[in-house]
Amino acid sequence: MRVRNYEFRRCSACRTLFLGQGIDEAETSHLYAGPSYFANPDFDSAESGGYHGYLDYMEDREPIEEKFERVLERIERWQAPGSLLDVGAGPGFMVSAAARRGWTPQGIEINPWAVEFASSKLGLDVRLGTLESLEAQPAAIDAVTMMDLIEHVSRPDALVARAAEITKPGGVLAILTPDAGSPVSRLLGRRWPEVKRVPEHLILFSVSGLSALLSRHGYEVLEWHSIGKRSSLATLAADVSPIAPSLGNRLRTRLTGSRIGEHQFELDPRTKFCLYARQIGARSEPESGLANSLQSR
Question: What is the DSSP letter of 150?
Fold first, then answer.
């Protein structure tokens, strides 16, 4: 499918979506700079390069941390609280949630503004950089989390390989990402908001595609589940805008600032999933399909 000047292709084996042309993160680094990534007033304006970042991530801190708490509860089924690294930590909401649950968490993030906010405003250990640049001892971390991150990187194979190096045997990796294989996302096609975020989103995995990738790096997949979050009607209207711009804009105009617009409810459209895997330390044979081709990307 074509979205603006970009072409997504779908793997025939695992149904993962990926860009047909190569894009290096250096080409898209400007998208993640400054506070505007987390509060983008042009979020629903395709003409101005919208659908990047978030309408107001900071305003949604409470429901986002609630969602991360649910992820941590699942991790703790297999790993007692210990050291935790959140990759792509943003302003530190996962690190904050993990600290409350007794973990010793650290975050790594490429947005200088977000690092400063997490460090100075929240008092969290969030550092500037990438997982590849992080100085960490091999097999040193009990749990690694990647919340809405892997879809942004051009070399997910290298990212997972690095996570495997620093995770203890028996440690857990949790990845939350859009689900390219879900019935809803496939039905929406090019109207799916996650593909409209190209070139911010480069690879959109299916459950089977991500599972195959992890298994090649010594991870045993434990479970996965779809995931949503508590949201307001005003936020829902913004989320609808990429699918139906006219309807979304009308709803936003009427709901923004109104009492009904602030009404909160739990929403799970089954277009995102969180997958959990345990590091068992032995590589399996590469799978066929896109997961295999990513080895050389």
Answer: G
Strands 83-87 and 219-226: unpaired
Whole-angstrom distance, CA of residue 98 vs CA of residue 87 = 13
d(CA 293, CA 176): 22
Tokens of 52: 């990047």
Q: Which of 181, 132, 140, 201 is nearest to 289 (CA)?
A: 181
* Contacts of 239 by beta carbon, 8 Å cutoff, 6+ apart: 193, 231, 248
Which of 102, 120, 105, 121 lies closest to 61, judged by CA?
121
Closest CA to 290 of 39, 19, 42, 99: 19
| 281 touches 143 (CB < 8 A) | no
Residue 157 has pLDDT above 60, yes or no: yes
Please, how many CA atoms are within 13 Å of residue 296, restricted to the half-sphere of its CB?
Answer: 4
Tell me the average pLDDT across 9-19.
94
Write down the pLDDT at residue 263.
Answer: 47
Taken in order 15, 46, 112, 86, the sign of the CA dihedral is negative
Residues linked to residue 19 through DSSP beta bridges, in sequence order: 8
d(CA 95, CA 88) in angstroms, rounded, equals 11
Each residue's pLDDT tens digit, 249-260: 665 566 566 665
Tell me the CA distances in angstroms from 150 to 44, 213, 252, one per residue in order: 23, 12, 30
User: Is pLDDT above 60 for 211?
Assistant: yes
Instruction: For residues 15 and 149, give the distance between their C-alpha atoms in angstroms, rounded to a whole number.
Output: 19
Q: Can you give 198-242 as a three-state secondary structure string?
A: CCCCCEECCHHHHHHHHHCCCEEEEEEEECCEEEEHHHHHHHHCC
Structure tokens at 272: 């995102």
pTM: 0.84
Per residue in 75-104, pLDDT tens? 999 999 999 999 999 999 999 999 999 999
